[in-house]
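ugh ok fine here u go
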Amino acid sequence: MHKGRLEAFSDGVLAIIITIMVLELKAPHGPNAADLKPLLPVFLSYVLSFIYLAIYWNNHHHMFQATARVGGAVLWANLHLLFWLSLFPFVTDWMGENHFATVPTALYGGVLLMAAIAYLILQTVVIAQQGPDSLLAKAVGRDLKGKSSPVIYAIAIASAFLHVVLAQLLYIGVALIWLIPDRRIERTIAQK
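structure:
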């Protein structure tokens, strides 16, 4: 199957997810800058989630630039990833509205963890369909970032019950690791 429909569908779903998240941002009832202060946790959680969605979109785009074709297993693995990403608006809103309380922060991490696992599954299925000598397999290599991210999320989830700020810092840390798109795929495609 051609990959174009999968990419277009995924782009549309991610655009809807981002739209839903931004619609959750409500304007303050007062006209003063001080009226924005209670909304700061909501805004900060939105910014973090927006960055994560941008990272997923970027890396998804790069993955499929190195993919020649897709089959049924890739379609299902992609839907699995989109399912977890579609929960971002809910956990983002809950965490922000509750000023980074323990349980919402831990659940946010749970969704991050499941999205990371879903992305790894998608990547594994794509590589299995493309073969061990495929562009993507060569580009990904051992994938230390991809394999270490779920471990950091698991630590952050546990940390949320001890110290919420530590959990938040770990979430931000993983985002910073992934902020720059994966250059391995770009380099591999350029060498083709």
